[in-house]
């Protein structure tokens, strides 16, 4: 049964490098242990997404305590794997395996991905590990999110494959984008093409209560209907239980069709937006669309290592204000997104964010989706989005679809 | 812009009934407040899935404090909506709105959906609300999950629509299930058909680190490869970053093709499994398949109000043991699922579970997916799954696809 062999995909040196960098960060922050709980973070550090707890000591060898499947985890990662066994015995297991950290007289500082770990599991872990007397449990997610900002070439090649899949799928599907087709029908077609190219069927997102499958395709005014989703466009969606993205309304001529899509291939996502129109856009919408391209190109030029993330947002705000479009930038009224772009990688909402508060410099290896958009209640949303890799010389677009308004005949 | 009107979908009396039942449960448990945070729970209780906190007092009028979109929440629910505003001021806001519960001399018992709320948000909430001195924060998810077990006719009609979509899509797609097509290609086709029928693109799941888009289609031995997923089948998946469900391997003749699929329409999911074969199954697999149908029909007969959930699992275990199939039931070796079925509704992993520990009686209005399956390492997984509504007289299948092994010609 050779065909059922599970191969280790991740290069061994990448796992060693990531664990090493996490341990350096832990030492700098005087953290004794990182107990990783989330599937995505565990995958990042080990190469395996099986279910369990990855125990990373500040120095020395980590152990992946696996609930299920232990056998498969052993195939997927070079890290030491061990059966988790009874959760109640977990502290005793750890004391046995790491006596220098969890022995009787120790009170280690233990970091966890508390931004995603459910509170109930956190409370059980805290009790089990004897917090606050026998250990301190702190949030360490910022450490891993900071590590994950910088992509290796292995990761970039995966993001490039996702970018190619989106570009090819979009090109193929555009032939079917006609007046009268519903948003849902055309999105379904696009998703079908993405899926056949290896899209895993979801795009992972870290934010609580935020959901995304492949993005959105929305025609006209519906795109400007606000939603819970933390982005510049909303959409009527498929009812109150899926209140964003595509609806069953038909695409109409002479209105902007916002095509904000992505996919996830081999774990890595891409995110791109193009605006299409069947016929032509009104003058104000056309002017806003052109401004969005200009803001994208301005950002592209300024995205060199050392540029400050928050400044890129502030510059784009100023650029929309000087065009008289400040009220329409990234949403309208109370419901607007307060960013220009966001990191992408294993998740769609990675760091850095091009937003106030992110006063950190761009670094080589960051991958950022930049999405200047303008929202016009009653008319729709226009804009573009490219994903860029920050290189030494500046930003290189990973997005393959050419820029430019997509004009389709009736 | 009449077409952009957001209609209130949920019947007003259903919201009132659900809030009333939650308040009764709160009073019985001496809980003063339920602060609902999860999108699905908020939708269940209000009819809206906008982002925010739903504050339900033990008696009196709830308030939905909305982060985004306040306007849309106001369209979607009849409950009082109010802007959340600064999170730092949330305690002060609540003191003003509910002085009898959160006034200066009060220390209310506040329930939260701690099984899903991220720990970091929990800790911020606890600090903000002054726990443990000025309030007690407890997990109340069991209360809402218990309420949600019993479906109204409004919910059942939605599950029936999802069941019909799966049945129709499967029937259409079976014509394309041929030797040589890959699992991914055929799954993509099936998903395309589901999506066009209104599938929202994901099936919601409560369990941490558990993921499902539409299920799995797996041919032969790959189905028996274990995965992190808490179900009887695994699958090679699309690599270590999506290590379950479909792979890019081709479907072969004379091996079992496990088709375990669902969709989510208007918020409600369905879950069904059929086994197909191109050609014929070996005698032992055929015998196991027939036993799975027998176990399903046995369960169907015993699923009357009052039957004990755990007993249904124990009976199925006994039924597989008497057929000499105990080692193959619901997985193999260390990696097996320890249930016979599970509740479905807004989420795929609802209560009750037909498993040890669930010593509660079936009640009218429960909807349960029953999925006896047998796993044969090196050969595959065979089995069936129907979703049933518990009625006064017994179980009524909501699943529309007829039972029986699906035999396809070469």
UniProtKB/TrEMBL annotation, chains A, B:
This protein's record includes keyword NAD: no
Keywords for the protein's UniProt record, in alphabetical order: Aminopeptidase, Hydrolase, Protease
Gene3D superfamilies (UniProt xref): Creatinase/methionine aminopeptidase superfamily, Creatinase/prolidase N-terminal domain
GO molecular function: aminopeptidase activity
Keyword Ribonucleoprotein on entry: no
Peptidase M24 domain boundaries: 158-391
InterPro entries given in the database record: Creatin/AminoP/Spt16_N, Creatinase/aminopeptidase-like, Creatinase_N, Pept_M24, Pept_M24_MAP, Peptidase_M24B
Domain spans labelled Creatinase N-terminal: 18-150
PANTHER family to which the protein is assigned, alphabetical: AMINOPEPTIDASE (PTHR46112), XAA-PRO AMINOPEPTIDASE P-RELATED (PTHR46112:SF2)
This protein's name: Xaa-Pro aminopeptidase
Organism encoding this protein: Paenibacillus harenae
